[in-house]
Structures are given as C-alpha cells and as structure tokens.
Specification:
27% of the residues lie in helices and 41% in strands. This is Glyoxalase.
Length: 127
C-alpha cells in the first residue's frame, strides 16, 4: 500500500492552482471538470509519478470549518520537504509569500510555515 493522493482544502481552485504551480513550483498533473468544480492534482517536479496533491474545494461546511479552525490555531495542513530551507525561504519571500514562522531549528529538523493565500498554513522542512 502506498499514498497516491492527498487533499488540501482550498477556498478558490483557480487561485490555489496559480499559487501551487507558479509560486511553489508544483506541476499540474490533472485538471478535469467534475460539475461545479474540477479535479485538480499537482505533483513534485522531482517525482512526477509520485504522490499527487488534490486542490479540494472547501464548499462542504465541515471542510470549511476544519480549514478555518486549523488556520486560526496556527496548524499547518501539510508539510513539504525542501533541500535547503533558507534558500527556499528567501525564494518564497522574494515572490511575496507571507511566513508565520521563519526557519526554526527543531532538533534535527528545520521548519518554516507560510500562508498559501487559499486558507491554509503550509510547513516546509529540511531534515
């Protein structure tokens, strides 16, 4: 068994697609109409056959509440690994990304947290 897809609830699929592809650098794998919304997945450029991120609409009240509560509590919805967190932090800052936590050492891991502009906090980590 392996993880093939993971979802991130987003307030606006178009805005999320732009942020996750243009700003973060993920590659769009699927963009399929599914009625009112779309099945949008992205993959890492380093592993295009790997785990896909689904940009899931938060139109269900439970999804919206879940997303809002995590954001209010400062809890990231997911974590992405990076090779050089300081370099990635500077790159994202240059693109206008707002961080809620700058790179911080936590034992053997250095983490940082940013706002994805779509209702979520995302953590990046360098091991």
């Amino acid at each position: 068994m392996k993880i093939i897809v993971t979802s991130i609830f987003v307030e606006d699929q178009d805005k999320a697609l732009a942020f996750y592809s243009e700003t973060l650098g993920f590659i769009k794998k699927h963009d399929v109409p599914t009625g009112e919304f779309r099945w949008i997945t992205l993959v890492s450029p380093e592993n295009q056959e790997g785990t896909q991120i689904v940009l899931e609409p938060n139109n269900h009240p439970a999804a919206k509440e879940y997303q809002q509560k995590l954001f209010e509590e400062g809890i990231p919805v997911t974590m992405f690994g990076v090779e050089d967190i300081h370099k990635e932090y500077e790159r994202l800052l240059d693109q206008g990304v707002k961080f809620t936590m700058e790179p911080t050492e936590m034992g053997n891991v250095t983490i940082a947290v940013f706002d994805d502009t779509c209702g979520n906090l995302i953590q990046i980590a360098q091991q």
